[in-house]
Each structure stands twice: as C-alpha cells, then as structure tokens.
Amino acid sequence: MPVDLLSGLSVALAPLLPWLVLGVLIGFALLVVLVAALRRARGTWLRLLAVAVLALALINPSLVQEKRDPIKDVAVVVIDDSPSQAIGDRRARTERAAEQLTERLKRFNDLEVRVVRSTEGAENGGSINETHLFDALNRAMADVPRRRMAGAVFITDGQVHDVPQVPGKLADIGPVHTLLTGDRDEGDRRIAIVQAPNYGIVGKPVELTIRVDDMPGHQSADAAVTLRQDGGTPGTIRVPVGRDVRVDLPVTHGGQNVLELEVEPAKQELTLANNRAAVVVNGVRDRLRVLLVSGEPHAGERTWRNLLKADPAVDLVHFTILRPPEKQDGTPIRELSLIAFPIRELFEVKLDEFDLIIFDRYRRRGVLPQMYLENIADYVRKGGALLETSGQGYAGPLSLYRTPLGSILPAAPSGQTVDRPFLPTVTDVGRRHPVTAGLPGDRLDAPPTWGRWFHQVDVTPNNGTVVMQGADNRPLLVLDRVGKGRVAQLASDQIWLWSRGFEGGGPQAELLRRLAHWLMKEPELEENDLRAHVDGNRITVERRSLTPDPRAVTITDPSDQTSTLQLTDDRTGRAIATVTAAAPGIYRISDGERTTLAVVGAVNTPELADVRSTGDRMKPVAEATGGGIHWVTDTDSGPNPGIDVRRTQPDRSQTGSGWIGLRANGDYTVTGVTDVPLLPVGAVLALVLGGLLMAWRREGR
C-alpha cells in the first residue's frame, strides 16, 4: 500500500502481522500505557516511546523509489487530399501548413507525430464523392490508447463529410484543431440534379428536375444551361437561379442515355467542376413487338416460337401459311384459319410498330403483294430489323431475293443447296463479333462441341459480315447494316436440331437471343463501339472492333486535362484498360472516331455540392474537444509564419489567438523499483530495549 510523496518516490507499508491482529496488540499496549499514566507511574512516556517504536516496526514502512521512463504522447496530423482541395491555392497552402506544423512539433521530445492523408489506406484509394477525415484519424490512432493521445490537427477546407453525430465521444483523444486552407467570403455557382429517374422507356421522355444556385446569395436572376445528349449537338435553355426547373430527356435508345448539363460561370467562381452535371438514364424497351411469318409448317417453327414466347417482354404476332394459293384440295377458304390474315394492317398500317420481322422458310406465293415487301424494305432502311432464315425455297425461282427485299438482303442465292452433314463453325471475324464471340461450345484450336446440321442454301455474300460458316466453308450466318436498320440471314433452317438436343445440341438459345438483340440495336452487342463502365472511382474503357485497333484513347477529365490510355486486345473483339479517376465528374473518352462518356461519382456528389471553405462542419467537434478553428491565411504572414503549437495541461485552455495546444498526459512505464526499509531491525531493537530499560530504571528510583 504505497503512499506517493514525490514523483517516482513513495513510502510503502508492509505490516508483519494482519492489520486486525496488529490493531489489537497496539490497542492493548496503549491501554497499559494509559493505565500507567492514570496512576502517574514513573517512566510512562518512555513506555509509550517503546510501544510506538514497536508498532512502527510491525507496520514495516519502507521507502520505494521507482525508475520511470516517460511514454511519448501521440499527435495526429490529418491532411485533406480530397478533390475540393485542388481549388485555387488550397493545395499549396495545405502542404505549406503541414510542413510548418511538423517542424514545430519536432521540438517536443515527448511527442510522437503521425501524419496521415485522407486517401491513404482507404479502400480503392479513398472516396472521391466525400471527404472522410475522421476515418483517416481512426486509422492513425487505432493502436494508441486514448490516455496517450495529445490531440489532432486537421488541415482541410472544412468540407468534411464524416463528422461524428456525437462529437463529445472525441473528448478523450484531446483537442481536435482545424486549419482552414481556403479564403473567407468565397462565392460559387453550382448546378444540381434534384430528381432523376434511373430508367426510362425507349421512345418516351423522362422528366428531370435541376437547380442552379449562386452561393452564398442569389446574385443573378437567371442563367444559361447547355444540354448535350450522348455527346451530340448541344442546346441551350435559360433557367431561374435558386429555383427547381423541370427538363425533359428523350430516351432514344436502350442502354445508357447520358445527358450532360453545364451552366454558364457566375461572377464569383471557385471551380467550374460543379458547373457541370450528368444524368444517366438506362433505356429499356416497354414491349418488344416481333412479327414472325412462317412460309410453311416445319419442325423448326416451334424453336422460334418457344424462344420468343419465353420472354414475357415480347409480344409475338405469328402467322404460318398453311396452304399456298396454287394448291387446291376443295377446302373452303374460311376453314383454313380462325381469323383472316390482316395483311394490310400488318404490312402497311402498323408495320413501323414492330421491332423485328422474321421470315422463316418463306417463298413467293402471292400471299404478300410486292408493294408490302417494298414497305418492309423501306421499314429496314428507316431503322427496322429483319431476319431471314432460308429454306429450300430461297435457292429457287420463288426466292425472297427476287422480290423488293433482295435490295436489302446481304447474300444472293446461287441456286444450289447442300444436303449432307456439316458442322457449323464460327469464322475468324465471327470470333470478334459480339453475336458469335465466345459461344458456348466454340473452341479456337479444335472443332466445336455442338451437333451437325444437314441442309444449307448456297449463297454469295454481296454485303455484310460472315460470322458463321457451314459446309465447305460456305457462308452460313451473314449480318449487315442497311441504312439505319439491320438485316441478318441464316442460310439454313436446321437450327431446330440443336434445340432438340441432336448430337448434344448446341447454343441455339444464346445465339438467337444475341442475334435478335443485335438486330434491335442493343448497345451491349455493338460490334464497333467504344464504351466505358464505372465502378466506384475506376473507369474501365472497352473498345469493340472486328479488326485489331492499336490506337490509344484520349481521356478528358472534369477539369479539361487530357491523358492517353493504351488498350489491350484480348482476341475476342475487345480491347480493355482500366484507369482510376482522381475526381468526380464527367470523363470524355475518345479514340478519334468514337466518343463515350463516363460519369464518376454520385449525381449530386457531396464533394462538389458546396466547395466553399468553412468551419461550420468542424465547429461542434472543436467545442466538444476544446480545439480551435484557424485560417491558414491568418498565420501565413509575419516573421514566423505558421500556427504556434504549445504543450498544455489537460485542464487548461487548448487554443488561443494564433496558437493551438496539444495535451501533455505525463504517462510513463516503470522499469525498476528500489525498496529501502525505514526502520532497520537493529535500530528497532535498540530503541525498544532502551526505552524499556530507561522506564524500569525510572520506576526503581
């Protein structure tokens, strides 16, 4: 049970008997001395001295000297590396203030200084949407007991987005000071997306809500906003400042529809990065309308029907010509079908409402007049999609190629057919085309694992791209673009063998799905395209091409700085590379021929929502911990620029004009102990015996 006298020096009591026994003995001895005193016996005080010395000896006091090694306190300097720190002179002020602060802290021998940046150690290099300084602080002091914390200093513009909801919990780490790197009374203009849908129906507009703000006050009545969709021709509208404005965005295609918005600069501007915004709306088709015309009943009809009906988003209109007009068997016309074939309605009135038209084993029999076939050709040139699967009739005189459709079909029949087993294979260019690249079962250095077919129409491609070949390397699947539309020809009607599992079957479902989606211009199946995918702050650039393209792409970041990126071709028609975005915003990627956009960060990223330097966010933390908020510009001037730093007692003020304090905790470790008894045994015996002898002698007189 030590009793502190001086730092490192104490008196320890180690009684030789239990305190209860010791108390009884000392009490009895004192009672005897008291009786002697009441009887006025001689030598009473000498007996009291002997009892006192004996009691003190039984208590066994000793002088304990501790050898102490002081433990350094820990101070953390957190440097804000967020994108808003790149505005104006903030970055330079930050580095200068950090250098001055660390130099001042070096003079304290009892202080360990840890410097951490907001982007160090964070997942994916930190967030580019928000500034997380308290995360960096927690990482820096994760292995430090709170009693050793001297405090923390944040060097930031004040836009901190992870301030604890209960700042009082930080009080035990010492004062948290803030050095602001911006200027007082800053002004800025921004454009914000108040509301935007994630999805929209292709062909229908979606409604956005935008807002232009001049901070801190409204300095203009209105402002010009430039709008550009998918990198196209820009348009300009004027919107009132400080009010929500509705804007219509037409969803023109499936996949990502990107709308860029840029507001003109104001009189006061900190950055133009938040004068820009982007909205990404994914276009989806409401219902896909497919017209399937079968020239005659056959085993492959069910393959097409099952494929198209399996998708609940597909509205299928299917007609099969059961009997050609030249066939006469006495069956009344009214008994050949449940409903009349609405030829005029389908091929003249409502033709443009279909997304895809499929002719399956069709031949000229007078059912469809030439005028309607001409309508289909015009429908394709204006942006429609046509798929023709050839039966025996395509090689004969009744071929569709000898109709107005021949002007848009990419392959002409030679008049010959192949009626023997063959294995469909993917061509070299087909292995780069998204319709046939990587089909399940296809192998680069060996025959594919799917089953054989037995019939093929011999055709000669006049246009388009041959992606699959059949017997004797004859063209089997040809894809072509005609005007604004697309055409595909499959020179065989045997794909149903795969659906029946003949010789193990084949990837008919995947092939036909890709083929239909390519015909309907799904962006994911474009064979010559440049696109960008964003995952957090990583941009993956992908270029599809039917031939290897060695060109690098140019990336323009939100601050209009450009850089180049070399893509790596993977031999499947794709060249890919990944780059890490340093700031949120719109990145424009171009290879000189095509341009795509990548929107990094949230639509309304907090990092750019308000870039003015302010101490408002850190004020509750400063009040809870006793820290201070200082402007770097106030301490930059004078003969000794920089904030002054002092070591302070925990119960004293931690900040003042031009200075900040770091708590001195005085923690230590004990490395050794020296124990010296205060009453040596010989001295105790001499005092006790001497006192008793003197008392006896006194009584004997």
Q: State the distance separating the first and last CA atoms.
A: 45 Å
Strands of the biggest beta sheet: in what spatial order?
Answer: 17-16-18-19-25-24-23-21
CATH superfamily of the largest domain: Class I glutamine amidotransferase (GATase) domain
> What is the count of structural domains?
5
Q: State the shape.
A: elongated
How many β strands by DSSP?
Answer: 38
Looking at the overall shape, the CATH architecture of the largest domain is 3-Layer(aba) Sandwich
Structural class: alpha/beta
Strand content: 25-35%
**Total number of helices:** 13
The major β-sheet equals: 8 strands, mixed
* Gyration radius over CA: 44 Å
Mean pLDDT, as a whole number?
84
Description:
The protein is of the alpha/beta class. It is built from 13 helices and 38 strands. Strands 17-16-18-19-25-24-23-21 form an 8-stranded mixed sheet. Strand 28 and strand 29 form a beta hairpin. The longest helix is centred in the first third of the chain and has 20 residues. The chain is elongated.
SSE arrangement:
Blueprint: E1 2-6, E2 9-13, H1 19-38, H2 44-59, E3 61-70, E4 73-79, H3 90-105, E5 111-117, H4 133-140, E6 149-156, E7 176-180, E8 188-195, E9 199-201, E10 205-215, E11 222-229, E12 235-240, E13 244-250, E14 255-263, E15 276-284, E16 288-294, H5 301-309, E17 314-320, H6 343-349, E18 356-360, H7 370-381, E19 385-389, E20 411-418, E21 425-426, E22 456-461, E23 465-469, E24 475-482, E25 485-490, H8 496-499, H9 508-519, E26 529-535, E27 538-544, E28 553-556, E29 562-565, E30 568-569, E31 574-580, E32 585-590, E33 595-600, H10 606-609, H11 619-625, E34 629-631, H12 632-635, E35 644-648, E36 655-656, E37 659-663, E38 668-677, H13 681-700
Parallel strand pairs: 4-5, 4-6, 6-7, 7-34, 9-15, 16-17, 16-18, 18-19, 19-25, 35-37
Antiparallel strand pairs: 1-2, 2-3, 3-38, 8-10, 10-13, 11-12, 11-14, 14-15, 20-22, 21-23, 23-24, 24-25, 26-27, 27-31, 28-29, 28-32, 30-31, 32-33, 36-37
Helix pairs in contact: 1-2, 2-13, 6-7
